[in-house]
Amino acid sequence: MRVATFALKYVHTPVFKVCEACALSNCPSFTLSPLSLEARVKTLLLALTTLIGAPKTLIRVPWLRRLRHRWGSGSEIPELQAMFEHSPHGSFVVDAQSLQILTTNAALRHTLGLNEGELKALTLQQLFARDEDANTLIARLSDCDSRTPVRTRRRGPNGQMLDLEISRYPIDLGERRLHAYTTHDVTVRSSFETQLIENQQRLDHLAHHDQLTGLPNRLFLAAHLPSAIAAARQSGQILAILFLDLDRFKHINDSRGHETGDALLKAVAQRIRSTARSADVAVRMGGDEFIVILKEVTNTAQVNEAAERIVEALSRPFVINGRPIATTVSIGVSLFPRDGADMGELLRHSDTAMYQAKERGRNNWQIFSPIMGRRLKARVAIESHLRAALQLSQLDVYYQPIVDIETQRVVALESLVRWKHPEYGFISPTRFIGVAEESGLIVPIGEFVLKRVLDDARRWLDAGHTMVPIAINVSAIQLQRYDFAGLISKMTRAKGLSPTMLQIELTESAVFETLDARNGESNNDAVENLRKLGIDISIDDFGTGYSSLSYLKHWSFDYLKIDRTFVRDLGTDMSDLAIVGAIIAMARHLNIRVIAEGIEGWQQLEKLRELGCSLAQGHLFAKPTPAHECAGFLTGKPIDLANRDRRLEPIEVTGINQVQIFELLEGDRQATG
Predict the structure, then answer these.
(1) Model confidence pTM above 0.85
(2) CATH superfamily of 3-190
């Protein structure tokens, strides 16, 4: 087969290559086999070396030498020129010394929009060094080959930017060295690659960032935190993990709606970002939980300052849809390497510290200590045993009388839940009520208490006793999670009782958490619905919670119960005496009756009588008593106090209070010490 015929086949069929076996043998004709750019380039080099008249002895590649010998010393130059000129890839040759362009082909001239003369007037720098340093580009072009092509950009004939991939093939002519270059227009491929990269980056961002707040998410934390720990280990610096949990967010979400809740989470995320340093990382774990990673920490004072900044920033009211919303945050802190060597350990310990912050009243931060781990284990154990107690009927309801100080007659009973564990005996409510509220167990416990109270009231009525109202402690969770007033109406009707025989005691925190409903921002105002049933409302433990006088002014309450902490030292502490006197005077002007809790001695009772307090409750009158022993409270006669011990008796906690895990553990430690 003649070279011209081969050249035409090669030029017009770029997906075929010359079979080297035929080129190296004495086969009278060439055959074609599939593919390979390398074979096309080799043939192009043969055309170039023949075109410039290179001596046979200087052709270094054996297959080229044999192919050159087979074709002769130059009679086929026109055919090889046609092969070079009609190559589908832009090609050109430059002098290795001067970098002057010596020759070009049609594909290159078409791609760049320049003619042969214009191209030959340029050097390699002038041809390509437009958007980057000339020396850098020339160095790259001088070292590239078919395996490591250079990617660069040049403006095309219509002003558009072209992405070009350039490969170099050196030609040694003895005294003269040349560089043959082939160019490939990869603009379309580059655009495609760019789109793929952008799509991948977009998918990666979506996978590692929270769609609501825009903060990094759990996946990002799992990928990022181990490297941050490794960096801190190498630098010897402290790494701090802050675990944030919004206080009472569920109540806001339930009362205002999920749209408002989402808007609040976005606003919270922005404030967290604004308090963090540029090196720190804020992550949304999900729900109302966030993580802040403090890097490059040199001392714990920096951690304290950062945690305090976040607490202060999130305690300021948010304005969502034109209306203010108040929320706070509880933060737990763990430190690397002191509190853990890996991600899992640090997150667990910061979570434990966060629960400790909630136990200490919320809206604060706590740094992990080993005792917190034991407290968390105790809390988990209490929750587990409490669930079993509900199923195994270990809970009971006791009653304590509320007495008119002047007449000493019982005017009401307060129902108090009691838990008698088969192994540990009676468990104080201060140890399990808080756990019940956090775990949601307070709802079935509340239903159990309500049912038991109504059952006891029905029996007492049937037995002919003189009935008095019965107070039931209710948490904010019970009010907001379902129609509590509807439940009372249904259950009292089933027992043939009137709802007016009940009183509802709410702690100050419960009142605060129903603020949205009480301001008319919910169609289901739980407290108002209870009032419509004729049920009196009491504020329990007044003075220990928010103690906002504004809700006493604007909301209608029937009773106010002064917490025992103000009553305990009433006879000896002038500050307590002044506080109690002020509360009683204020309540009198607001037409609210005052009940003093924790009356354990005669001196307390006399002081309260002098201050004008009308009602009292405590061990001086009676300890909490099981239902079958309460007949003496329901006679309508004054309680006989003649034989009461006038000494101050040990105080037993009554009513629903938040669990004190520290006291629980201290008690366990002393018991086992």
Answers:
(1) no
(2) PAS domain (3.30.450.20)
